[in-house]
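Two folds, back to back.
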Amino acid sequence: MSATTSGSSTNNATLIPAVLTAAPPPWHSILILCSMITLFLWRLPSIQSIDQDATIATFTNIIFPSFLSLRQLAYIRLAIAASIWALSIQTILGPGWAQETTYRAGSKLVKAPNQLRGIKTMYPFTSVAWNLLGASFTLSGYIALQAAIQMESSSNEMKDLSGLSLSPWLLRSALILWEIAAPFTLLVATVIRYAIWPAVLKVKDSTANLKTFRNIMMHNLNVLFAMLEIALMGGVRVRLEDIAFAPLVGCMYVLFSWFMVNKWNESTKGPQYIYYFFDTTLGKAASIALVMLLVVLMAFYALFVSVEYIMQSMNGNVVAHLGFVVAVCSLSMRFYD
């Protein structure tokens, strides 16, 4: 009887995965990330290069001036920014949610509900990308509004912006934030649609959290906002020369994830990652994920760089511009299983 009980206890123990006390990144992941950071720091543009396009003209351009005034452009940008900040504030002040990561087979981490409340709700990359987009639209909307006020108050017939003076760092920040936030919108949406959502369905977990109003906004409307800007509103360009900024922010987030590994949950639950592809216990797969994420981000950055030329080929056809927005949104958004 006692032998049977002992054997049963042993079998049960083998079925319960051991809880790790730490999950440090493997050496090859550290090497890859350090190499990326070094490369992109070396590729950072000079202030003089940024200033070539960080101008008032960049943020006051209107793709279809017969349909949209400068003041209307400013108000639309600021309305988008307001909707972004409103959702972020509501999320911070709300009850939060329990986030469970669907780890891949072979992971040594134990799945556990991570309670995200208050400012912690802004820690997922989705929230970071969302708020960067909000900051971008806030600055570009402010610049356009100041320009509209200047033009409307100008006494000369040319209605130029020669009398408007804005901080160079305001203009630089607006450009750099846009160049970071724009490709992040597609990165977030496509990772959710083609990686995280299918992974949850594969193990028959609930996708209810992915369908909440907050996630629908942050995973889908972010793409719509970016597409509206580049194809129908101001067409703020993304410069190839500034390609280093977005991946550098991405690298900083990877470092942040490694730092937070034991802070998402209580110690008894062990290390946790809120994105399964950051799981450092997967060994080489973790390093491959870092490279793949960089490749995908660079592809989306290249798309935004090329949009300027794609729009030119459409010869000002509103329907073609609208079709581009619909095509990109339909390929990246997801609302249901």
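---
second:
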Amino acid sequence: MVGAFHGHAHNRKCQLDWHPVAFHRHQSIKEHFAFWDADKYAALSNFLHNHYREATCVIRTLEAELSVIKSKLNLNDGDFVKFYDDEKLYLDTLKQLPIQDRLCIRYVEVLDDLEICQEEWSAARSAANNALTTIQNAEALVAHMEIQLSIEECWAVGSPDYLQFKEEAALGKYRAALNELEHLVVMRLFELSKLSLSSTGYKLHQQIRKALQHCSEAIRNAINRYNMQAAALSPPHLKLSWKDIADYSFLGEFDLLCYSRTNI
């Protein structure tokens, strides 16, 4: 088979005579597979011949070695059949454990579950004992307070006496937060007054500024605690911000002190 443009290299007539029409293509394909089959049959014959010779050589060699092994170990052909059956049975048993082994494994799993349940029960019992001890201590403390206050019948939650002193307790927390805030505000006012003195030196001036920075942070925290306690009152008291405190120049401007226990 010659390419369609072969003739351009040397002769136009060559291209016309050998142009690959349908007949030429079919003929080329048929010849290709015919020669390919012949080559494959020849190669297959060589393949079979070579492997047959190799197999017969291996059989002769292994038969000789097997005879030596049978003689040394006192075996016969029936033993090899038995070995085959034993190996097959062993491989079959690997698919699933014997029933006794499976029961033992399940027993171990159940023992582990039991141990976990016992630990959980022990922890729950310990927590219950601790809660019971806490309740008993609280009951004993209530009884002791009732003796001190000569209370014959325990106050019910929500009773008038309970609500009265519940409010007083909230006021106590509020006043404690207010007293802390008052203390810090007074310290800040004193430090500010020192800054305005003409006799204050540069080093002392710097120390006072650092002290005011620390005091300002403490005042912010105290304001947060105060606002939390002020919101818990009934009715709630007004909340404070840092701007409210920063605007105070004199203690008399701190009008929240009128709500303290001393009622300044």
